[in-house]
Design goal:
22% helix; alpha+beta; single chain; 155 residues; OB fold (Dihydrolipoamide Acetyltransferase, E2P)
């Protein structure tokens, strides 16, 4: 009886080892998704600052979103001339989870593909970043190449 009990405890404690494997996000993949989508996206660069306050109610028409938080983007929005439109605008950061892994608010200077919903700007972040990339000089150059039609292939 003790052996059976010990075996049952061992089996219940043993969890499968799983790891989330994410493809490296690229400017080309983010731009391609935005181009293929029926949604409207804005290309921006800058830093996000979480705003104090409660979480925003999660829209019912987006069932995978687990949390929505207000933030402010301080940076620049792209135009065909470059990242030349300074902005300080409120955005909504919607995060979702895949199993135990969840999206978070990106930190540092980033390149964003922000969904435009009416007058609001939304960043959707999961455990594998897709719409927020590090704003390296190479990423910003590639983003402008994509935006102006000069070529959008991965480097």
């Amino acid at each position: 009886m003790r052996r059976i009990l010990a075996a049952m405890i061992a089996i219940s404690l043993a969890q499968p080892v799983a790891a989330l494997s994410c493809l490296r996000p690229t400017v080309a993949s983010g731009f391609g998704h935005a181009q293929d989508s029926s949604l409207t996206y804005v290309l921006a660069t800058g830093r996000l600052t979480p705003l104090p306050g409660e979480a925003i109610p999660v829209p019912r028409d987006i069932p995978e979103v687990t949390q929505a938080r207000p933030a402010r983007l301080d940076g620049h929005v792209a135009s065909p001339g470059g990242f030349d439109h300074p902005v300080s605008l409120p955005i909504r950061v919607e995060t979702y989870c895949v199993g135990p892994w969840c999206g978070t608010l990106p930190e540092g200077k980033m390149l964003f593909f922000l969904e435009k919903r009416g007058d609001a700007h939304v960043l959707l972040e999961g455990p594998c970043p897709r719409f927020a990339l590090s704003a390296t000089p190479e990423a910003l150059t590639q983003a402008m190449d994509c935006l102006t039609g000069s070529g959008c292939g991965d480097p």
